[in-house]
Specification:
The protein has 11 helices and 2 strands; from the N terminus they run αααααααααααββ. With 227 residues, the chain is mainly α. It has a two-stranded antiparallel ribbon. A hairpin with a 4-residue loop joins strand 1 and strand 2. It starts with 7 loop residues before the first helix and ends with a strand.
């Protein structure tokens, strides 16, 4: 198996440096033109591919232009507009409720603090971090999606299992200047090479420092299960 560097800090920095070389222009892949569209897109992206969300929001953002539009629409109608998205009924409810709060309590503006964002229906810390980073240019945490969760464990950077615990464990070892890019780098690598079910370890630029490498390791540290 690959041999991790001697400290978590060194391991993390090496991963970041190599992935910056591999994905120099990586960024968020959701399409949006304002903070409200970003919020809606991120809510929809839970357990759904960004590609699918972008296809759906193409027409959605033409029909609904303001928080008031989402707040006032019949929930069943919004659900029908989202019916190619996973858990579309639940997400329609989240969006309607969140936008009602935005209209009633925030003068139709998407909030710019972690506490106010996570008070919105359907918005957890991950979603709030994305909105803060890409909507308000405020970076106060690390977005931990499924790719970041999987790769951070596979690479021996964390042993935590829950996203919020992983975020808190990563923040001291990922340089603060890299908090935003760390997410995008791992997402890009997770999609291109280090996939959930069949990672291409033989052609991976991190193979030599990855303790989960299938080349000669027996266990996937992301799941704790044998390969």
């Amino acid at each position: 198996m690959g041999t991790p560097l001697s400290s978590r800090e060194e391991q993390t920095q090496e991963v970041i440096d190599r992935l910056h070389g591999e994905f120099p222009d990586t960024t968020i892949s959701l399409n949006f033109s304002n903070r409200l569209e970003l919020l809606i897109a991120v809510i929809l992206s839970a357990q759904c591919t960004d590609e699918r969300v972008n296809k759906e929001t193409e027409h959605l953002f033409e029909k609904y232009e303001s928080a008031e539009d989402y707040a006032e629409v019949d929930e069943a109608e919004l659900a029908e507009d989202l019916n190619s998205i996973t858990y579309y009924n639940n997400k329609a409810g989240y969006i309607t409720s969140a936008c009602q709060t935005i209209v009633e309590e925030h003068d139709e503006e998407v909030p710019d603090t972690m506490s106010e964002l996570t008070d919105l229906q359907g918005v957890g810390r991950k979603t709030a971090n994305v909105v803060l980073q890409h909507g308000h240019e405020v970076v106060e945490g690390i977005v931990v999606d499924t790719h970041v969760q999987r790769l951070s464990r596979r690479l021996g950077i964390t042993e935590e299992e829950r996203p919020e615990a992983i975020e808190q464990d990563l923040m001291p070892v990922v340089p603060e200047s890299e908090w935003q890019d760390y997410t995008h780098l791992l997402i890009s690598h997770g999609r291109a090479t280090c996939t959930a079910r069949n990672p291409d370890c033989a052609d991976c630029i991190l193979e030599d420092i990855c303790p989960s490498s299938k080349v000669d390791a027996d266990v996937d540290l992301a799941s704790g299960e044998p390969w």
